[in-house]
Amino acid sequence: MNTLDWLILLGTMLGIAAYGVWGTREDHSLNSYLKGNHNTGWITIGLSVMATQASTITYLSLPGQAYENGMAFIQNYFGLPLALIIVCAVFLPIYRKLGVYTAYEYLGRRFDTKTRLLGAALFLLQRGVQAGITIYAPAIILSTVLGWRLDLTIIFTGLLVVIYTVTGGSAAVNLTQKWQMAVIFFGMLTAFVVLLAKLPGDALPIAGAMGKLQAVDFTPDLKQRYTIWSGILGGLFLSLSYFGTDQSQVQRYIGGAALREGRLGLMFNALFKIPMQFLIVMLGAMLFVFYQFQPDTPVFFNQTEWKQYAQGPQGAAFHRIEQKYAAIQSDKQEKIRAWVTARNHGDATAEAAARTAMTEAQKTSNAVRQEARDALRSVDPKAQTKDSDYVFITFILTELPHGVIGLLIAVMFASALSSKAGELNALGTTSTIDLWRYFRPLAAHDEARNVRNAKWFTALWGIFAIGFALFVSIAENLIEALNIVASIFYPALLGVFVVAFFLKKVRGPAVFWAAVSAQVLVLAIFFAGKVYPSHEIGYLWLNPIGVAACVAFSLALQCVVRRNAPGT
Amino acid sequence: MKPPQAEPPDELPRVPGFRTWPGIYLFVFVCFVVVVALLAFFSRYFA
After folding, report:
1. Global model pTM greater than 0.90
2. Cross-strand pairs, B15
3. Contact in structure between A469 and A448 (CB atoms under 8 Å)
4. b/e map A396-431, b = 16+ CB within 10 Å
5. Separation of first and last alpha carbons in chain B
6. What are A137-189's pLDDT values in tens digits?
7. For residue A477, which of A68, A20, A1 has the smallest C-alpha distance?
8. What does each C-alpha distance from A296 to A135, A141, A195, A315, A405 come to in angstroms?
9. What is the dihedral of CA A108, A110, A111, A112, to 10 degrees?
10. Size of interface A-B (CB pairs under 8 A)
11. Residue A346: how many other CB atoms lie within 10 Å
12. Cβ neighbours of residue A181 under 8 Å, at least 6 residues apart?
């Protein structure tokens, strides 16, 4: 990065944060601090919902995921439009009608206090952990490739978001997220255009023949992580949990000028989320094609880590792997070109033979990449051997012109700040409304004290997230790690809301113990899959299983309670 | 607690071409089906 990149990066980041503080300097009521301004329109709400969901991990990790495994991950979003329609039709009108600050307040009114506290606790637990991952994920990657200190990167980004979120509350979050999304759209589009200019003419057929464009998989296999079935059913429940019961999202759309604004904001996401994710995974698939034709494609994309070990005592083994990979890449290039020629000539027999040769070369190439990972692990068992998160950032730093590099790094930080701000805002709100006001009911009517406490809680959660990020270490691909954590803790929570909305006869005690039992069941299935990998199911299936268990247990327990009740 | 009521009738979408919210939901659903169908076709075409 040169001076121009730094100017663009710091100007964008500090400018948007300062604008958020300045734009909300005069409004300090509890309502605007927790719900945002009354005049917020649907575009701001729609962009705010999108910005909260799409963190840096989306822009950094998803292209790498597509580079490695193709476009199948996009099926994860198939349930999202359906979930948003349900949220618009059922959840949002109820939240607006009751005038609640948090989704869990509704549980308190519908059931009882302990169910409300359980809902708030499940949210705080999983969102608190995710807030740490959200801040850790971009920091580990950016600090590694840019040579920055990891702890300082975490602390700087963490404190910046804490300052404007604490100062301006929900209104500042909405205001800054709109501009951060503008930076993200512009930056990602620029990267895509630059990449397209560098690709060969047959990029799409090549990516397709190498298995990178399989966006939809109809295989009815529970063990397969991403299929259309797990995407629609599991994704529906995951998205319903996230958009309907997660305060970081609920807080984005319950404010606004009218119910209409929230609904249109959500419908905006229902329409554009899958096309947007498609462009991001397509970027990853195109990166794959791009790196097939580069003479110096790295065998391991986290080059900082690779070089660190390659310069050590076992450097010779690492250099042998590099040379082997370069030779295989060169051979693969020839085979790809042979396939393209056969395809263009319309020679079906030659094309089939060339395709087989090309696929074999890809398998050999993958085997050498695995050898590289094994070599890293043999030198240091704790070495990070997942390098897919480093693919896009490597392209940004080595292939884009100066100025655009600064813009793309700004995209990464803007997305980190925007999703983090939404999370901290929600954590602070839930802690204030569902916990502090419950334990200090006499102080609940003092509005100024409520705002002051919401600020303190937001700051405390920010510090917790920074602390978590400083000590965490994640082995999974980062975007999968987020979804796995969500799939473990969301189902029981969504189950409680489903019972609340649709099963009017079920009361608090039954749903409370049903939710606890469903949570235990989901944890048991998840860990059983880890102990017995041959029986592990795709994590998206935990969502419908957990919700179904919570609903079934609620009905069963309610029957037992009614039967044992005196006078029945 | 009273059961939640439906959306008040005066809350119209005020979106050109749509008179009711169910109409908008149906439009979004049809768009979703078209997008998934296009993706399935895309996958098959480039397989």
Report:
1. no
2. B18
3. no
4. bbebbeeebbbbbbbbbbbbbbbbbbbbbbbbbbbb
5. 55
6. 778 778 877 888 888 988 988 898 898 888 888 878 888 888 888 888 899 99
7. A68
8. 32, 21, 17, 18, 20
9. 30
10. 77
11. 8
12. A47, A50, A51, A414, A418
Residue ranges of chain B whose pLDDT lies below 50: 1-7, 9
What are the chain A neighbours of B29 within 8 Å (beta carbons)?
81-82, 85
Q: Does A278 touch chain B (CB under 8 A)?
A: yes
Q: For residue A459, give how far its alpha carbon lies from the nearest alpha carbon of chain B (Å).
A: 35
ipTM (interface pTM): 0.86
Q: What is the pLDDT of residues A209-253, one digit of tens each?
A: 999 999 999 988 888 888 999 999 989 998 999 999 999 999 889
Q: Which helix (H) or strand (E) holds A14?
A: helix A3-23
Which residues neighbour A30 within 8 Å (Cβ) at sequence distance 6 or greater?
A447, A450, A451, A454
C-alpha A493/C-alpha A550 separation (Å) is 9
Q: Is the dihedral of CA A55, A61, A67, A69 positive or negative?
A: negative
Helices A3-23, A150-198: axis angle to 10 degrees equals: 110
Task: Give the pair of three-digit tokens for residue A237.
Answer: 């429940």
